[in-house]
Specification:
Elements lengths: L4 E6 L6 H6 L1 H7 L4 E6 L12 E2 L9 E2 L1 H13 L3 H4 L19 E11 L2 H8 L3 E6 L7 H6 L3 E4 L9 H12 L32 E2 L2 E2 L9 H19 L1 H5 L3
Parallel strand pairs: 1-2, 1-6, 5-6, 5-7
Antiparallel strand pairs: 3-4, 8-9
Helix pairs in contact: 5-7
The structure holds 6-chloroguanine.
Length: 251
């Protein structure tokens, strides 16, 4: 199976305008490789101010994203329902996490406490038919959203962002470029960093010399076997010196 549809839930849908109009990701969407749908979390609110957060129980600084709004939004997206069909429904509702026709699609909450995003997880997600990405804001999301809505929690690294939008874009880009037929994926998708657990070998193009720096002779020798051996050794050496941690892992 391969990813056909991707839904994004965010309070900043406009944030994705740039990536969707300027990148190869945007091209994949424009060419119909991927059915990407943006949803504004605020469309699932009930009050005049369209509030998505509230003060924390137990006190303290900051706000917490409301579970009811996230539950309505997720249920609507999972089942292709309009906001009016779900918003305001009493909660808890027996159908709060109901999905017509089977289990929830893979629903990834972007959060610093999630499992680290890797090429291996990207491959995994690219093999799903549907993916739903939930962009939270860092300050906090009600714990019941983690429990009832998300099937996965993913972080893109050990640093803190304001919200999940940038992280979602990272996930989308890493996943989209693995899809069959997407631009840039025609050539061997195995000849790249991480596919074999190594960093990529150094690349060179013309001119043959810049500021006295010349291209390694083997690359102009015409000896394809020698080139392959050189590249492999370079990849191994780069990985050993820059990212020895990659050599210990088996992904
Ligand atoms: Cl997924 N979200 C936020 N807010 N910060 C992050 C992150 C995600 N991954 C790393 N930092």
């Amino acid at each position: 199976m391969t990813l056909r549809r991707l839904d994004i839930l965010t309070i900043f849908p406009g944030w994705f305008d740039g990536p969707l109009s300027t990148s190869l990701l945007g091209k994949a969407v424009a060419e119909g490789q991927l059915d990407l749908r943006l949803h504004d979390l605020r469309d699932f609110t009930t009050d005049r101010h369209r509030s998505v957060d509230d003060t924390p129980y137990g006190g303290g600084a900051g706000m917490v994203m409301r579970p009811d709004v996230w539950l309505w939004a997720a249920e609507a997206v999972w089942n292709d329902l309009r906001p009016q069909a779900v918003v305001g429904r009493s909660d808890p509702h027996p159908d709060a996490v109901h999905v017509a026709g089977g289990p929830r699609p893979r629903t990834v909450l972007l959060t610093p406490r999630g499992r680290p995003f890797t090429q291996s997880l990207a491959r995994d997600l690219a093999a799903e038919e549907r993916l739903v990405l939930l962009c939270g804001r860092y300050e906090g999301i009600d714990e019941r959203v983690h429990d009832l809505v998300a099937t996965d929690e993913v972080s893109i690294g050990d640093y803190v962002l304001f919200g999940g939008e940038v992280a979602a874009t990272v996930v989308i880009e890493a996943v989209t470029r693995l899809l069959p037929g997407v631009v840039g994926n025609e050539d061997s998708p195995t000849d790249e960093s991480f596919a074999d657990g190594l960093l990529e070998y150094p690349h060179y193009t013309r001119p043959a010399e810049v500021r006295g720096r010349v291209v390694p002779q083997v690359l102009t020798s015409g000896d394809h076997g020698a080139v392959a051996t050189w590249r492999r050794r370079q990849a191994e050496e780069l990985t050993r010196t820059r990212r020895p941690d990659l050599l210990d892992e088996d992904e």
